[in-house]
Protein 1
Amino acid sequence: MVKRNAGALKPAVFLDRDGVLTIPEFRDGRSFAPRTLEAFQIYPDAPACVRELKQAGFLVVVVTNQPDVGAGIVAQDVVEEMHVRLRADVPVDDIEVCYETREQATDRRKPGAGMLKDAARRWGIDLGASFMVGDRDSDIEAARRAGCTAVFIDLGYSDAGPTRQAATVSSLREATDWILRRGEPACVSDAGGRHANDHRI
Ligand SMILES: [Mg+2]
């Protein structure tokens, strides 16, 4: 449906938050979102990566599940303050947040594609020319449902990783370099190999 007006639409890079832009807490081979402002730490190279993506012509939109708010474990104010700090350090264009727990989930909660689609409507994004970078299967599945190319950051979690991503990398820096190697955004929508097999680097 977006293809018809693709010339007027912009490509985006959607970024998951925890494990992509911010350092998650690791316990027992799993990762957890920070629950306090003290624990909220941004990867040192995140600002430069986002700057490079924007310079290449991408909108950069964070899409993050924060179910600890829906579960009453973390106050929404705390997450909102985290995002004030994130925006101050990293030049993202927008942040889409879903506070729902698994039980409360609508299509906005990843692996649903609702946050990506809402951002696409608001910003005029060509989802088919866009990328989603994440560290969980739910990020890769949300990308698939939205029609975006998925890049998986493998942080070595103990659960089985996703299989439908276009590339597997180990950091936002590698994800950024992989996306930028695909060419300028104007060329991306013409690339035939966007959903080709995993390019592990
Ligand atoms: Mg994550």
Protein 2
Amino acid sequence: MRGANSIKDQSLIKRLLPCTLHILLPIPLLPIILLSLYFYPFSLPSSPPTKLSPPSSTSTPLLPSAEKGYVCDTPCDYSNGRWVRDKRDPLYNGTTCATIKESQNCIINGRQDSSYLYWRWKPNQCHLPRFEPNTFLQLIVNKHLAFVGDSLARNQIESLLCLLSTVSAPKRVHHKGSRRWYFASHNASVSLYWSPFLVQGVQRSNTGPLHNIVHLDRNEKWAKDVHEMDLIVLSVGNWFLVPSVFYEGGKVLGCLNCEGLGYTDIGFYGPLRKALRATLSSIIEKKGGKGNGVNVIVRTFSPSHFDGDWDKEGTCSKTRPYMKEMKVGEVDEEIRRIEMEEVENAKVKAKEFGGFSLEALDVTKLSWLRPDGHPGAYMNHFPFGPGHVQNDCVHWCLPGPIDSWNEILLEMMKSQECRLSLVNLSSSH
Ligand SMILES: *[C@@H]1O[C@H](CO)[C@@H](O)[C@H](O)[C@H]1NC(C)=O
Ligand SMILES: *[C@@H]1O[C@H](CO)[C@@H](O)[C@H](O)[C@H]1NC(C)=O
Ligand SMILES: *[C@@H]1O[C@H](CO)[C@@H](O)[C@H](O)[C@H]1NC(C)=O
């Protein structure tokens, strides 16, 4: 299992890096934008999204045992802000946490500069508290938290496991279909389902197929476990940038970068939107109205930072964050916009069912501002020996900026708990 997953992650890097490079360059991008403009006028990258409602939250640790009479804090927009200096050490490091994937264990791999570890995200409207492992664990007592998606889902869950391990050691448990950890102290399970498209698909590989095959309207295997998930964090995006053939109703809808196959190139914005919409609809239909409620969180697109060739020294080797005036790249912003819009669309559908909450964990901007947070060449152990350099400018070092994703996730969970408690209070009077 471990071996298979690391092969998948490696292959994502190898295939994605050259593709991502293309996507980041304006000229090769033009045909994609033009095509998606032609077929999907809805997804036109016009003005940056400003009207979408931000994930709301609270900064008061409210637990199920809290006395009545409390107030939920005013919602905060965590998406906009800046990185500020922080003197405190990260909660964990590559020697204290055993579950860090080798290729993201930057310090152990020889990364010398450490100033990238000493920043914290400061939202414009509020203070984002440092991660509180005990609070997080209390919020998942008797629950199952599932991360579903690509290797960035794995990156985030490994950050979370390291953060939580500082107070309670999880046990790796066997489960068919996921990687799963169990916190006996809290009877809580945390799992990772590999599903890079969320919907049914086959990743391209050297042995074939040469393009991803993606069925935009079919459930993946993980969906059969939805009934036993209490909180689902979805992570999707990067694999849609890889050459693909997209299917709908069992028929080819079109493709992305598939010269020679005779299909129409429809870009990836439309297919990504369809896959996310189908996934959210299917979760709502499965879980809605079941009484116990479920939270679904869509983690928005995580930008990569290739500022050179992926196999050359010095690519994504920055050592400081960008300051806030640096605008998010056009493609990253557009993918984020699609994800935010689909969350809003799904909220409308979810309203028909009670006890169902759906939010976006909007990390695009804060991540974009951290070109210094990727492994780069330190995806390999002491990388600058003989042979050529490889750079990972997609995933994030652990510890690193991705820890802040989990800080925001915790605030969202606290806020959700607070709202549920208030509903309970008002319904019992
Ligand atoms: C990791 O953290 C431990 C405990 O805080 C500390 O003793 C150790 O020096 C740290 N290691 C590194 C590589 O920073
Ligand atoms: C542990 O949590 C599961 C749900 O994840 C629940 O079904 C079970 O009853 C819990 N066990 C105890 C002892 O509370
Ligand atoms: C709300 O009430 C339900 C049923 O009475 C209970 O199971 C649930 O734990 C309560 N939630 C909170 C957050 O108090």
Protein 3
Amino acid sequence: MEKKNKQKNEIKDIQKIKAPIVEALKNASDNPTYQFHIPGHTKGKAVFQDFKKLIGEKALNIDTTDEFDNLGTLHPATGPIAEAQELAAQAFGAQKTFFLLNGSTAGNLAVGMALTKQGQKVIINRNCHRSALTGLMISGAEPVWVCPSRIEDWSIWGSIEASKIEQALKENDNVGLVWITNPTYEGVVSDIEAISKVCKKYNVPLVVDEAHGCLWNFNKHLPETALKLGADVVIHSLHKTGGSMSQSSMLHIAKNSVINPDSVEKALKLLHTTSPSLLLLASLDAARAALQSKSGQALLDRTIKNAKYLRSRLDSIPNLHQLKTSFGYMTDVTKVFIKIDGLSGKRLESILEIDFGIEVESASDVGVLLLCNLGNKRSDFKYLADALEKIASNNYTDICYLENRKHMPMLEPQIVMSLRDAYYSEKEVVKKEAAIGRISAEVIAECPPGISVLLPGELITEDHLPYLNDYSELEVVKRN
Ligand SMILES: Cc1ncc(COP(=O)(O)O)c(C=O)c1O
């Protein structure tokens, strides 16, 4: 999506870009000490040999935690870690950035814990990630669900209308927060600017879980980040698409945020491990530095060109369809959701994997999601497009057990008990069929995409059954 006058980060040469944690780790590795502290494998000297061969001595040598070797601390942020967080804040256009271990999950838990309270209401989209719900279960705030539009023929949730947020704000007192997921897992983008205006009108802070949009600030062909559109807090899973290692994410406090960063820092301190992995922290530092560098910018440019190439190849395959902006939804070009007539998404996924050695991001009953990654080359996309052409023109048929499984529920929840009360209630386990008419006491939200089928406090109905194939029993609130 083209954006005029979009302020993007300066392209700098990688040599001039600082990566303080990376530098500090290198320094520590070059100047070894006699180590009488954790981690006990002592720079890889005491690990299983096959594991050592697999990941290499170097990685083990720098597997350490904060406090030691002048590496700084995470809570409070000091030394190279503090410096790296400041550089990240500048790069993403935030007032303050916190590095997250345990992924964006940690960010959502901290938002729930720090920014919501028992008795408050939180306006939140029904297709939020389960970690946002866990945040609410910690605090005891109650969700007021907003259901996004539905894209029925793709069996996915669409965008969140600002008018629905306004309606929820009008109808509810004591709203502590509006908490929105953008983009969706499949790349559908909501109008955050409009939602933010509504939030400001009602004086309610806005948190945007932008887990899948961490690249947006670094290329003008991608949607605008919520940090520039009026959100108060934004969460990014750098490890998903931004090039850092698994589990590493960032939480940003926006420049004009009404949120006090200290409250978030306090919650993160309690939620985080007390032995943060320097490898993960360094990978966040490195990912930010790379995104700002010339070579990183070139990789992102290449990714967008490759995504466009893939999309144009897919357009010429007659019985293959892709979700795209011209259908009336704003989308992120790098997330390609496709379906082929006559094949379920699960079947397509298995053909791609077994016959072509291609592994996709996820598959639903309808389609598969392909992520165009920073590391993919043009030849990868060519191979993928060729494979899809072959599949679409061959006589592949569906397999019943894959075809009949439903994945993405788009049901209006019937709430009969508070989320937290139901979660902490006395429970019993009953056969799935006997659970109809009972109150769920558990979160049922499989990953990916971690969106709830059922939550504690919701009435279980027959409509849920197609989504519960993997369950023979359910945990329900015990009857008195
Ligand atoms: C919208 C959204 N938010 C948060 C998360 C949690 O992210 P992480 O895996 O980084 O903990 C996910 C994970 O898929 C997600 O899709």
Protein 4
Amino acid sequence: MGRFVGRIPQGGDIMEGNRLAEATGFAPVSGGGFTLRPPHLGDVVPYTTFLADPDVRVWLDDVAQRPMSTGRVESLLLREGWCLWSIEAGGAFVGVTSLYEPDLARGMARYSIVIGDKTRWNRGLGTAVTGSVLAHAFTELGLRKIVSDYLVPNIASARMHERCGFVVEGRFREDAWRQGRWVDRIWLSMLRSDWERHSMRAASAPAARDRP
Ligand SMILES: CC(C)(COP(=O)(O)OP(=O)(O)OC[C@H]1O[C@@H](n2cnc3c(N)ncnc32)[C@H](O)[C@@H]1OP(=O)(O)O)[C@@H](O)C(=O)NCCC(=O)NCCS
């Protein structure tokens, strides 16, 4: 079973659940104060607790607005994922990030991230993790487009996507009911070419600052 290196995976390569994740470079990724590793059973209870916190779940999809049992979370983490990683920071499990709904014929997948440990918010972790997953998607998996979205009041997510170089494709007006009102959803994407440009800019930024 090979890894998808440097090419767009073809539909025939699709496998079930984490078998594909194992085949697509599922090795732990470390750096920048965090580790991305395969989820395990010990993550189920803490992740269920994270999702029960209204602050964590409020801007997630409708399905996350209802209480989730540990059985449902276990299935999400351990059986249903395509490329799904647990995020560890400071030696502790703090959340989950994933590439999901792969459309391998078109070289596309969707992106998601949930940092459930609120003490970790607004310290650059989301931006750093997203950068690592994008690098994996474009270089290891050979994908050509990653799509994502956020609900407009989710300023942290807006800022994180912007800093990672996502490009806004559109606005779905009044797309979700939250906190007693309808809120808009922003749809974004990143092409491999966007990512290459963004990475080059990011790599050259410190050098530019160093100039007299
Ligand atoms: C969205 C999420 C992944 C962001 O992770 P994070 O580690 O906090 O993100 P970062 O620190 O890299 O970036 C967040 C940015 O938003 C900014 N920000 C957050 N709230 C803000 C506010 N109310 N006003 C202005 N800026 C704000 C932060 O200051 C930071 O920007 P900066 O580094 O330029 O100062 C995290 O908050 C989370 O998991 N939330 C719950 C689940 C969720 O909403 N997931 C995303 C669904 S689309």
